[in-house]
TrEMBL record:
Residues 199-282 form the Cytochrome c domain. This is Cytochrome c domain-containing protein. The keyword Protein biosynthesis does not apply. One of its GO terms (molecular function) is metal ion binding. SUPFAM superfamilies: Cytochrome c, Oxidoreductase molybdopterin-binding domain. Residues 1-26 form the signal peptide. The lineage of its organism: Bacteria, Pseudomonadati, Acidobacteriota, Terriglobia, Terriglobales. Keywords: Heme, Iron, Metal-binding, Signal.
Amino acid sequence: MERQWSLSHLPAFCVLLLSACLPAFAQRLTLQPTRHSPDDLEVTGLTLSPGYLTRAALLRLPQSTTIVDHDPDFPGLSFHVSGVRLETLAKALGVPAKDDLIDAQCTDFYRSHYPADYIARHHPILILSIEGKTPAAWAKAAHTDDPGPYFVEHADYTPSFQVLGHSDQRQVPTNVVRLNISSTEATYGPITPPGPATQQVDQGFTIAKQNCLRCHAEGSVGGRKSHFTWQMLGAIAKNSPNDFSRYILNPTSVNTSATMPGNPSYDEATRAALTAYFQAIAQQEPTRR
């Protein structure tokens, strides 16, 4: 005969012991309605009302550790970091399967996108601590810029695809203050080229949604670090394709005050694919969101 057990059958000390051994993410995180500290992480896009997670709440989740070394964001530095994998955080928040994309927004409105396939391949980690300290405390001791309150790293990263001169890029934003839970349909739908698209346009689309979308917006989708919107890029590609291609390769060759980094690995075919994609975008109505 199967016997049903509950915690009420156990002595009090056993209940405490069992509770301490349960996985941290078995108890879902609860968003608080207001921010109480600059370190509170904003979370939006859920079926729940937008809210905030404290650093203490994030530290109660299972932590992953790795070493940051030879990272362009931290030149000449090597250090240990720890934090929460995005898939662990999604489980703790009770994110439904249909919400298959997380994006991280930074203080400068740069935005990195993590669709489910990227998360499954690369297991990005939201970093909470550097050498056991908060990013701000570590930065002060190391006499370097503060990458916090949060940033993203990977324990191991191997590019999973190559499209012309574009290799699957690590998404490693710093100064992350907000996570938005969305879907690939809601995020990539507004920037999908009108069909039927050519192979060249599809290649440009693959590159644009991983690279360009970080700084350029279409409606509420994408980053806002640049004031050039998706439709503006389309208009430039349509009316000045040569300048558009040159700008992708080396922005200051077209505009000496440009702050966008160049893409020296993008050969002529890669730039032509991006140009063709944005020319296709110029043919459709802008998204009103």
